[in-house]
Each structure stands twice: as C-alpha cells, then as structure tokens.
Design brief:
This protein has 10 helices and 12 strands. With 346 residues, it is α/β, with parallel strands linked by helices.
Length: 346
Amino acid sequence: MQSQPLRTSVIGSYPFPGWLEFSARHLAEFGSADISEMQDDAAQVAIQDQLAAGLDVITDGEQTRFDFNLSFYGFIEGIALEPASPRRFGPPAHDQRGKHEIVGELRAPRGLGAVEEFQRLQRLAAHTGKRLKVSVPGPYTLSGRLAPNAQYKDRYAITEALLPLVNKEIADLVAAGAEEICVDEPSMSCYGYREDTKRFVDIFNRTVSSGYGKARICTHLCFGNFKGHPVGWRKYAPLFPAFLDLHCDEVHVEMANREYAELEVIKPMAERYDVAVGIIDVKSYHIETPEQIADAVRACLKHAPAEKLVFAPDCGLSQTARWAAKKKLASMVAGVGIVKKELGLA
C-alpha cells in the first residue's frame, strides 16, 4: 500500500483540553448523556486542531482514553485493577505505574473499545476528506502492566493470552471500515536489545494477521514517553534486521529527540515498507521552525525516496501542552511543504 509522497501524520494521542481533565476528575457529577457529549466535543477539538495544522492523516486524539493504553485494561476480564500507584511521591516517572493482578482467564467479550472510538471519529470527521487512523496497543506492550501468576507464568504467556484479543479488535476495526490501523508496540523497541527480536516479529505478525492486506497496518516503535521520560535503551540497531520482516505497511521511528542518531536505518526499512520518521520532539518545548523541519526532511531523503516517507511527531502528543502541540504540528506541515515545493510535489 503506497502512501502519498512526504505525507504528514500523527501517532495517535493528542493533549486533552483543560476542561476535559477537570471534568474527568468529577465524572460522578455528570449523566451518561453529558459524558457522551463531552467525548464528542473533546474529539472534535483534537480533529479541528489537526485540520488547522494541515495534516494528511488525522486521529481522534485518543481523547476518550486514559493514556494510550491504560484504558484498555478496563475492557479485559480476569484483572483486579491496581488500587494505587506503588510510588506516589517524588518526580513523576514510569515506576509510579505498578502492575494489575490477574485473577482469572483473560477475556474481552465487549472488545477493547477501539471500534467505538473509530466509529466516533468516522462520524465527526466524515466531512474532512482526510485519511483517518485508529490505534490499538499490541499484546506485548499490554502485557507489561500485568503481573504473572500460576496460570500465566511470565510476560510471554500473558502476551499469548492477549494476542487473540487484539487480533479480534483489528478484525472488527477492518469490518467497521478502518483503512489505517496503528498497532503500538513501544515495549518491543524498548526491550529488543535483551529479548529475541525474531520472537517479537512472530508475535506482531500473528497479531495483525486479521488486518494485514486489508487495511494499512502501521506500528509505532519508540522508547517511552511518560511525563517526558523515555524508559528503554534508545537504540534501533538491536531490532534489525529481524524487524524488516514485520507485516507492516508503515513503521514509525522516533528521531528528533535522539538528534537523528541512526537515521541511516530508514534506508533498509524503506526497502520493505513505508517509514514514518519522527521529526517533532514531543519531549521538548522548543518549537521547531519550518526551516528546521525542512532540513530534517532533506536529510531523510538522502536515505529513502519521497514516496516511502511519512513525517510525524516522535510519539503521541498527550504529554505535551496543547499550545505547544498546535505550534509544533503547524511547523511540521509547513516544513514538509517547503520540501514538497522544491520537489514539485505541491
């Protein structure tokens, strides 16, 4: 599935409006119709901001989720949700997220909620003519917040139990008309240096088997971004060449925050699938100028042809203030536009 040359996209999440964060802390004061209206309004805000920036691909900003993956645990049966963070004071970081206890068979009879999110996006963005993308976390990443037990002895056993749940969600998204589905697996890129990368590829390919060839399947490989902090060893080299065998139409790698280290990796990647390069640093409040973005695009073109390149922020924007996210997206689109004009693509 070929993309348009030098297209602009996002990973999935977008900052919550302040009123949504406030309202989420007082949900008991709202009725079900009020909450539904609030969800529509928040998604509309994210959509409008992306349209104003001029993006080629838009999402709902994951406005109805708690983080990019945490809400999914509420759809999974057999889990006792952790009552409180293991570390509640001090600098915010990944170790404030503990693990949920598994108390039964892992099932998701209601699905994982992504279909409903996509249907809302379809309804709210039908008039835009834009390509729509929906995301769902992969089973290895989802397994990271669940504690092994006698039934599921390690992280891989938990992953195998979650895999058919995500596979079915992808199938249901395809049936609902989703043309672009991003399966987020940042845990694979975070821990690929110490795990069997071929095993990761097998897990991923079985996960997406229900959608590969039917929709544009993407994946996001980053090193974590909770409160602006990464969590993994930030090198892509350990993932390759194994990850060249991912059943993907587009693979995203973060580059801006890493000062474009290993940019050359996009050359072999572009020979197998489209490469989405992160050229906006979501961990920094420096607002990239269009000229800086254009320089980054030109550097990418030294390694991959225009028709194989997509440009996006390094990661989801949920951890970035909305005022900065709006400016960063506008600069990204403007900078890519400069190079499009130079190449006669605009």
